[in-house]
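request received
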Amino acid sequence: MNFNLSEEQTMIQDSVARFVQDNYAFDKRNATVALQHGFSADNWQQFAELGWLSIPFAEEHGGFGGGPVDTMVIMQEFGRGLVAEPFLPTVLLFGGLLQAGASEELKNDLIPQIVAGELQGAFAFAERQSRYAITDVRTRARQDGVSWVLNGEKTVVLNGGAAQKLVVLARSSGEQSDENGLSLFLVDAFAEGVTSNAYRMTDGREAANIVLENVTAEAIIGGPGEGYALMSPVLDQAVLAVAADALGAMESLNAQTLEYLKTRKQFGTHIGSFQALQHRMVDMFAACENTRSLLYRAVCALDADDEDAQRSLLALKVMVGRAGRKIGGEGIQMHGGMGMTEELSVGSYVKRLMIANTLFGDADYQQQRFSALVNADEKQPVAAAAA
Amino acid sequence: MDIRFTDEELAFQAEVQQFFANVMDDDLKAKLHGVEASPDLKEGMIEYQRRLNAKGWMAPGWPAEYGGQNWSVTQHFIFNAERGKAGAPAPIPFGVTMVAPVIYTYGTDEQKARFLPRILNSDDWWCQGYSEPGAGSDLASLQCKAERDGDDYVINGSKIWTSFAQAADWIFCLVRTDNSGRKQDGISFLLIDMTTPGVTVSPIETIDGIYHLNEVHFDNARVPVENRIGEEGKGWTYAKSLLVHERLSIAEVADSKRNLEQLRELARAQVNGGQSLLQDPVFAKRLADVEIDLMALEFTELRVLASAAEGSMPGPESSLLKLQGTTIQQTIQELRMDVAGYYSQTLQGDLSAAQLGNDFADFAQKQYFRGRASSIYGGSDEVQKNVTAKHVLGL
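response:
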């Protein structure tokens, strides 16, 4: 049993941390997210050169063959620096789905392009009515000879503005909320019938609503009806990634708030000398450590393919929401009026954490899934609560 | 990063499971039922602890030369997890976990030979004399006085909140041997025989209706100097170092896990209009919140254990174990009261569970009130936060 990083993982961590230090001071970040699509193409090329874009992919497709711990290490550093480049949508979601279910031919074609930093992608899963229910899909896919034709609208597609290709979740059969009948399709973002309306998220990253009108898909990923089984493990990895990103953001925001308590003076003394604030800072520290513990738990369980993995992931996502909201709210409050300003990065961290809460289902939603999972088994009632 | 058990660890797990399945027979379970509420407690615990000792597992964490097991951190984790699953209690801590590490770390060879084997075999029952009527969270202000007179100390003063003093053979005490300097200085660590003339015990009635707390009075009680541990005036340092030993087991994760599973089944059995309490979204939310906190705490503890195994200083997260462990225990106790409904406020008295119509509320209620103490003793929640703010956050 150990919670140490390997030598390779430590090297990745150092390399990402150095990048963040050199390129993500708050004013530089503001300049970066103001660019088209909310990120820097130069930074993305640097990611490719440093080999980060290859990390989760299999070696036979030019990847590094990394696992969940590697992803965690990168994402945590990205969260610390509020990195805006679309690693999650392009590499982990779009690339992850290709890796999970695309034909060898497609993998050999597209994955090297991702690794080289030449291809931006996105995963279009949510819809106007779906809220957080991943299986609530109205977008239809109908077979037309050897092709599939898609109709519907996907919403809040992360990196949907920059993506050159999309993986679209659509229904090839079944009712609106069925797990069965979901399929994944590769769609060219510039194909006829695709209309994209891009907008910014609160933290500056870009998303899009994408309307599909009789769009002919380039390919089906996996077989018809295999969408749910294919995307579930990819989404599990994405939840880990979001949680690691959130943990990094919590660490930064806590460090910044603690520093403020030690330097800001009121009533002739540092405000960190006030017990009311000290105890609240301890609660923020505890929230961050709880998130770290559940992240390690989920990463180890997923890595070992342990039976506890689902429960751990759901618990983690609930904690990310709860802890993020606490640390975010308290971070603003303890900075007083300055916490309300765009001069400090506090607000940007808070927004990052709020987005992390909503991605792939918020704390309330995942708590209900957690309860359904852990309370499901009918067991023999315990006669008495003995010691 | 890896939490998979090796084949050797899996074999050890099976051995521990088998051991507790054998040890926790119906007779012993009955004696330990409700633990602190029962007059059979001491008898049952001694029987239980001697079964542990017969296997060599009474004090696995001690150095091997005194009877420890040289287990890896993972083995300790497995042992505690399986103990909790089996519903077996941790040994009463005052001897084996609290005073023994002070004795084997700072005591003389004579003191080690005299006290440690009797702790292992549960021949002596210990209690802890730290708090005083005027020294609670501010423990260093204690005033119980020890004055040197020849080869004895003469003790005058009182200790309070002393758990199980009524059943104890020995008490380990912090006493003041010098009043001239800083309040942390001038404190010494003494082992006192409870049968010493001048030592009296008076019970404290508590809101849980369980007799476990006492006040211990010292009226010119003479204690041989040879019963002092280490140097005069260094008692505060020794007591503080003991907290490190305490910290590794203080979260009581394994016990909370078992209590939570029992709580879930109790709630499942409460059915109204065809719907179990587990299906009530408000109750389910509260249950999920505490379960998730417990899952996090379990790994916080593992992180602390893993860093201890590498010989590193415990990381900052270790300061959270007591605070979060007791919060979780109290939340489970609260939920169990709520599951009992009206019965959470009834006193069972001489009625049987069948006559009353409920077989867990009495226990739930006693544990709820008993459990209020856990955020007060061993450094109150507020003191824990002060300490974390100062030493971990640097405020």
